[in-house]
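Example 3.2
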Amino acid sequence: MSTNENTNTAAARLNRFKNKGKDTTEMRRRRIEVNVELRKAKKDDQMLKRRNVSTLPDDATSPLQENKSNQVSAHWSVEEIVKGVNSNNMELQLQATQAARKLLSREKQPPIDNIIRAGLIPKFVSFLGRADCSPIQFESAWALTNIASGTSEQTKAVVDGGAIPAFISLLASPHTHISEQAVWALGNIAGDGSAYRDLVIKFGAIEPLLSLLAVPDLSSLASGYLRNVTWTLSNLCRNKNPAPPIEAIEQILPTLVRLLHHDDHEVLADTCWALSYLTDGSNDRIEVVVKTGLVPQLVKLLGCSELPIMTPSLRAIGNIVTGTDEQTQIVIDSGALSVFPSLLSHHKNNIQKEAAWTMSNITAGRQDQIQRVVDHGLVPYLIGILRKGDFKSQKEAVWAVTNYTSGGTIDQIVYLVQAGVVEPLLNLLSAKDSKTVLVILDAISNIFLAAEKINETEKLCLMIEECGGLDKIEALQSHENEQVYKASSTLIEKYFSAEEEEDQNVVPESTAASYTFQIQGNTPDTFSF
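Structure, written as tokens:
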């Protein structure tokens, strides 16, 4: 990205914050280019597609026991499978389908493309409808699930073969292992992207999927089965451009609320991922989720020590606070801020970064919301990240501080300075990242505006000079980025110009004792308002 593009992105991001004197609909930060890295779900966060490589649940699930046909299907070639599948003998068709399933369930390099090229998919799809022979329904469903777990092209082959409606019909199978395989296959297809997700929804998958969980007690369901259904539901909530249809979301949400109170960790993790996808959008989409009343439970999960649950619940909470002040207030009222000391000091950099990003959207809110951040003792944690966090977390903490200085009261800004924000903030001016430097300069400018109002400009200048900040600001006057050198020059001219008429030796009186930037007696290097 060129320097100018960097700058434009920073300007765009700045325009998405709420603060005093700006249009409140523009000011809260959305996830735009600047946040792309932050938002990309890591590969192991949640699987888009999964391949079934386990053995049959047990021999009894099939009238034709696995070991009985082992000798026949152990080493079939694709050609032999084609011949068997196309025969008129049901027993042979079953053995050939099972042989194909075994090849596709190989841990390494399953021959998916060979099976597709052999034209077997339409035949397997037709076997899904053989209610008179549940073993062949199961084997073909398993084979197709594993084909659909591959690349988009391989998934497309399954969809083009007419598998979606066939799998939806199988959800109502009286055989649990068959309906579970159908759930899994639909999850793989929906996980491919928005288009297939919407096709699965359009074919009517949601109602029969939800009915699988329509039992008085979810604990009565086998854990593997419940996990599969939850994972598939989360894939129906996943992906943007476009986001899932709002009616579909409203249909799924009551079940997600219920799953959020379950005790299985995998179920909770996938439910939280689903909610993180649903809150990743406009305020009206966030509202659909928030109005279900699930935020307190989400906050409870945010405080659990399990990383696979904490990560998506933090993502969802972070998304909600990109919404309106009212939506943010619900998160605050649910007690979320009390969890943030541990999140902002978490040993995983990614958690720290997302926590700081979340804070940046809370400090972009109202002054009473900034005060709640202060009251929960979170400012020192943000300053801690500025001092020693990894750079991605530091960037988010910079935004949190700048938003705070944009919308905070003078008292709140005084507290921020007293807490020691100036030095670590200025130290980050040496960052290579132009947009971060611009945001820091904006914060410094905001702090100066507050200092002017309470006649503390001199002390702030002295503080900046003493910690080497003036040298850093001066160095930026020769920065390659035009906006950076203009912003730094403005600060120098306005506050550090040699033509200052005021006597440098006079320490101005403050208007109120609480505002004063005091040079503390025994530590002359430490300053605070």
